[in-house]
Specification:
- This protein is α/β, with parallel strands linked by helices.
- Helix content is 39%, strand content 12%.
- The chain contains 9 helices and 7 strands; from the N terminus they run E-H-E-H-E-H-E-H-E-H-H-E-H-H-E-H.
- It has helices at 20-30, 53-63, 77-91, 114-139, 159-162, 165-184, 204-210, 222-232, 246-252; strands at 11-15, 35-40, 66-71, 96-99, 146-149, 191-196, 243-245.
- The chain has a 7-stranded parallel sheet, sandwiched between helices.
- Strand 4, helix 4 (114-139) and strand 5 (146-149) form a beta-alpha-beta unit.
- Helix 1 packs across helix 8 (222-232) and helix 3 (77-91) runs parallel beside helix 4 (114-139).
- The longest helix has 26 residues, at 114-139.
- The protein starts with 10 loop residues before the first strand and ends in a 34-residue tail after the last helix.
């Protein structure tokens, strides 16, 4: 599929946009000429992770978009409110929200201290709810409003609870926001959907946690950006309350080859399925 510039002039509020999947979605939209609020915590360079809200904003501008870097910790209601107000003052409204910010700790109950539990709950579930709530008054004025949460289908297979109950609760909280808000705002035309990757996605943050070896059987963030773009260009009145999988979205629009998304194309038939997806879900034909 080609860029059709459907997002030209649209304003996107993207959390966690300083690197990884959030950044990829931001730059993808920028190529259409979109306005991007880069809402993330990283204002100063991280010693181990590349990217700040300012360096990403420069990339967005080079790609053809307009950027507004905002220091935002999604746990902080004051910071979220200020960023929303600043965005509306600069761009005149908000059309799209991408709730990408997330914290992860794949630990069992006895190994999860309450500080880590609270971090995951407050960023994943509460942060998603807060950002969505804060942007909704402006989304309701848009002609094609979307909220997209990067969260998994609500798979109740017990294996996804037994090994990391705390993380599952926090991540499924984001997915429950999809179910609830999609229904709540259906008649008002606000689309609320989720997007999750079929395979593990290799980012600098993942590499810091699991090492470079994780890239061998992973895909690049580009596949999530391409899938998000397709979803966000759809009619908000017709596509809401869905849990999309990245390669299924691409297959729906005629993409048949996925080699370019693999970090190591030679391993394309041995990619690692992401958590919350059961192995018996088939890959599209490659």
């Amino acid at each position: 599929f080609d860029h059709n510039r459907k997002l030209k002039g649209k304003t996107l509020f993207i959390t966690g946009a300083s690197r990884g999947i959030g950044k990829a979605i931001a730059v993808k939209a920028a190529r259409d000429g979109a306005n991007i609020i880069v809402a993330a915590k990283t204002a100063e360079p991280h010693p181990k992770l590349p990217g700040t809200i300012y360096t990403v904003s420069e990339e967005i501008e080079r790609a053809g978009g307009r950027a507004l870097p905002c220091i935002v910790d999604v746990r902080d209601e004051r910071q979220v409110t200020l960023a929303v107000e600043t965005a509306v003052a600069k761009f005149g409204g908000i059309d799209i929200v991408v709730n990408n910010a997330s914290a992860i700790s794949l630990t069992g109950t006895l190994d999860t201290d309450m500080k880590r539990y609270d971090l995951m709950q407050n960023i994943n579930t509460r942060g998603t709810f807060l950002v969505s709530k804060s942007c909704l008054p402006h989304l309701l004025k848009s002609d094609n409003p979307h909220i997209l949460n990067l969260s998994p289908p609500l798979n109740l297979n017990r294996r996804w609870f037994g090994n990391h109950t705390a993380y599952t609760i926090a991540k499924y909280g984001m997915s429950m926001c999809v179910v609830g808000m999609a229904e709540e705002f259906r008649t008002q035309g606000v689309a609320v959907n989720a997007l999750w990757p079929r395979t593990t996605i290799h980012t600098a943050a993942v590499e810091m946690l699991s090492g470079i070896e994780g890239a061998l059987y992973s895909r690049k963030p580009d596949i999530m950006a391409d899938a998000a773009y397709i979803i966000l260009c759809r009619d908000s009145k017709e596509y809401t309350g869905h849990f999309f999988i990245d390669d299924e979205v691409l297959t729906d629009v005629g993409v048949t080859k996925f080699t370019q998304y693999a970090c190591y194309p030679e391993n394309i038939h041995n990619l690692a399925t992401d958590i919350f997806l059961d192995e018996n879900r088939l890959y599209p034909k490659l």
